[in-house]
Write a structure and sequence with these properties.
heterodimer, A: 225 residues, alpha/beta, seven-stranded parallel β-sheet, 37% helix, globular, B: 118 residues, alpha+beta, hypothetical protein PF0899 fold, three-stranded mixed β-sheet, three-stranded antiparallel β-sheet, elongated
Chain lengths: 225, 118
């Protein structure tokens, strides 16, 4: 019997990351731009998707992948009612979507007939940050009622996103939310991240976001990466 | 919260390297985890004891090496270790800060036993 130390140095998320890369290749091949929408429960992810569908109507063909921990179709029913193809993924209690689940979700969407796929991750500010899906953009929907301390409490989430949406801006006058303190945390973790203050209740800020998203998608089509 | 998926990944990585190196048993696993990685050691250990049964890794001890979050101010160059909440640079109060380390999350090495060839 002999003992031996074997150096490994392998990232624990490497298996997921590899499948995420395959998802990205597949989306690229179909010419479909994609975003991974993350947020805490109740931040307004689904409302934001519905507003985005409205803003992009007759401009981009959307598909939506909905992740939920329970076998409910509340969210996907809303998307289908808005006239867009939607797939519901039940994570079976898991707190996040991973690359394999998205792969399954993409199987059920008519990718060749789509321009944009929006993935609604499970409402959670911890776990989804660790699992890459292969989407082109990671978008975080923060919201005013959650409080101004969230960047400090969930650094991995705030650090890893490309876009920050600040929803429920219409509630700002009623809630002790110090925007300076919030943005300071965001800046430390993710300097220069682009942000969109919006209200899904009133529709404020949505058209600016939609224009930006269309430009990103056009840029993607031009470059294919 | 996602420690089950994490633990399954750790097991897969360890088994792969154990097999590649002709191990008959894995006795110790050394994990490197940055302070900013949200992983609960006890929870990983809990799942580990269950899912490693009847594998090469059954009974292996998990060692968690935690690395502190090290930050550097882009403005004045001051380097500091994060204690508690994220802050402005303690020296010049700039918010332009680089995170140098603290986000690591990997299997560093494993200790294996091999049967001697007769």
């Amino acid at each position: 019997m002999s003992k031996e130390r074997v150096p490994v140095v392998e990232q624990i998320f490497s298996a997921n990351d590899q499948i995420a890369m395959l998802n990205r290749q597949r989306l690229n091949a179909a010419g479909v731009f994609s975003i991974n929408l993350m947020a805490s429960p109740g931040a307004g992810k689904t409302s934001f998707i519905l507003r985005t569908i409205e803003g992009l109507k007759n401009i981009l063909r959307l598909g939506v992948v909905e992740g939920d921990t329970a076998p409910v179709t509340i969210d996907s029913d809303l998307i289908l009612a808005a006239g867009m193809p939607a797939v519901q993924i039940n994570t079976g209690g898991d707190c996040h979507l991973d690359a394999v689940m998205l792969k399954e979700g993409l199987n059920q969407l008519p990718l060749n007939d789509l321009d944009l796929v929006i993935v609604e991750n499970v409402g959670n500010l911890v776990c989804p940050a660790s699992f890459k899906l292969g989407t082109h953009l990671n978008v975080l929907v923060a919201s005013i009622p959650e409080g101004d301390d969230k960047p400090y409490k969930y650094p991995a989430m705030y650090r890893g996103v490309d876009v920050l949406v600040i929803n429920k801006m219409d509630l700002l006058p009623y809630i002790p939310f110090k925007m300076d303190y919030f943005l300071q945390g965001v800046q430390i973790l993710n300097p220069g991240v682009i942000s969109f203050p919006v209200s899904c209740a009133t529709g404020d800020g949505i058209s600016k976001w939609c224009h930006w998203l269309i430009a990103q998608r056009n840029h993607f089509i031009g470059h294919g990466d | 919260m996602h420690e089950l998926s994490v633990t399954e990944n750790i097991l897969a990585i360890c088994e792969k390297h154990a097999n590649e190196n002709g191990a008959s048993k894995v006795t110790d696993i050394y994990l490197t985890i940055g302070q900013l990685s949200s992983i609960v050691d006890d929870s990983v250990q809990f799942y580990w004891d269950i899912i490693s049964q009847n594998t090469l890794c059954q009974g292996a001890r998990l060692h968690f090496q935690r690395l502190p979050a090290k930050l550097r101010c882009k403005q004045c160059g001051h380097e500091f270790i994060l204690k508690g909440e994220l802050t402005l640079c303690p020296q010049c109060e700039s918010m332009r800060i680089d995170i140098l380390s603290g986000e690591e999350f990997f299997v560093e090495s494993i200790l294996i036993e091999k049967e001697e060839a007769l």
